[in-house]
Amino acid sequence: MIERARELSSEEVWAGLEQVEGFKNQYADGFQVLHPGKTMVGRAFTVQFMPLRADVDDVAKTKAKQRGLPNLFNQTAIDMLQPGDVLVVDLFGKKVDGTIVGDNLFYYVMKATNGGGLVVDGSIRDLDGIAKIDMPGYYRSADPTPIGNVMLTGIN
Q1: Which end of the chain is more exposed for a tag (fewer CB within 10 A), N or C?
Q2: What is the mean pLDDT of residues 71-78?
Q3: In the chain, % of residues over pLDDT 90
């Protein structure tokens, strides 16, 4: 199905999703396009963040430690990517401290996914460096700050 989708226009994909129950109201606009004209199709690997809450973060870290798991960071999710994935990140539109990747991690995402792509409802940093990397991307804004004051709350 993913391979067949590569030949479809965005209008054809949209029309198909509108007809499927459960896919209504699944549109968000206002994204900047990193490489206009470059197609992005792949398995969505979703990552969700929320504003940092010390009480929730402490519980999550304790449970992870009890299970022998590492603390969850943006790198944790990126390390799980597979060829063909599109990294889809919910950083709730955060600009300052809402940067999922800079040019180094963007390059790593490109290598791990074989150029799958990135969609982030948040920011990216090192835009000049990222723009030189041939992978599709959609992002809300660019900001020089590193990711911070957020906690990872979901990985699909």
Answers
A1: N
A2: 85
A3: 66
Of 111, 74, 108, 79, the residue nearest 91 (C-alpha):
74
Q: Taking the model in full, what pTM does it have?
A: 0.91
Tokens of 77: 């999710």
Q: Which residues contact 13 (CB under 8 A, 6 or more apart)?
A: 5
Tokens 């990294």 -> residue: 87
Q: Which domain holds residue 39?
A: 31-155
The domain spanning residue 44 has which CATH number? 3.50.30.40
Judge contact between 72 and 155, C-beta under 8 A: yes
Report the distance separating Cα 132 and Cα 12, nearest Å: 30
